[in-house]
Amino acid sequence: MRSNWKFAMTLALGLAGGAAFVEFLHAQASPPTLVITEIAEVNDAAGFSAVGGRSNADAAARNQKLGAKYVARTQNITSLDGTAPKRLIILSFADPAKAKAYRDDPSQKEIDAIRMKTTTSRSFMAEGM
């Protein structure tokens, strides 16, 4: 009787551990969410310098607090097909909820307002790999 109890307990713990591991793997497998901002033209360089002139280190520190990681933040773009934007910013987030929270942050709303007022640009989210 005692060995049946040990077997049942071992089986239950193994199943629980396996289920937890599967959940961990599913969490790891979810693709990142990318926020891509493409600036086709800067219409007001002086106005845009308030956000575009920040150093990469300052911008990265701010974004890290909001759960974002830079994939790219550059003006060095070579067109392979069509017209390349003047500037490209790609941020990576763990999931869409974090990307949306980033977009809803008051400091990001201020940056977006300046960007939209001083540039011809677009910004969008995409599922990463």
Low-confidence stretches: none
* CATH class annotation of the largest domain: Alpha Beta
Q: Compute the CA-based radius of gyration.
A: 23 Å
Q: What proportion of the residues form beta strands (DSSP E)?
A: 15-25%
Measured as a percent range, the helix fraction is 40-55%
CATH overall fold name of the largest domain? Alpha-Beta Plaits
Q: How many strands, what sense, and barrel or not for the largest sheet?
A: 4 strands, antiparallel
Strand arrangement in the largest pleated sheet: 2-3-1-4
Architecture (CATH level 2) name of the largest domain: 2-Layer Sandwich
Q: What's the total helix number?
A: 5
Helix and strand run = HEHHEEHHE
Structural class: alpha+beta
Number of strands: 4
Describe this entry's structure for a reader.
- The structure is a single chain.
- Helix content is 53%, strand content 25%.
- Helix 2 packs antiparallel against helix 5 (106-118).
- It is elongated.
- It has helices spanning 2-29, 45-52, 56-65, 96-104, 106-118, and strands spanning 33-42, 69-74, 87-93, 119-127.
- It folds into two domains: 1-30; 31-127, Alpha-Beta Plaits, CATH 3.30.70.
- Strands 2-3-1-4 form a four-stranded antiparallel sheet.
- With 129 residues, the protein is of the alpha+beta class.
- The mean pLDDT is 85.
- The chain is built from five helices and four strands, in the order H-E-H-H-E-E-H-H-E.
Jot down its keywords.
129 residues; alpha+beta; Alpha-Beta Plaits; four-stranded antiparallel sheet; 5 helices; 4 strands; elongated
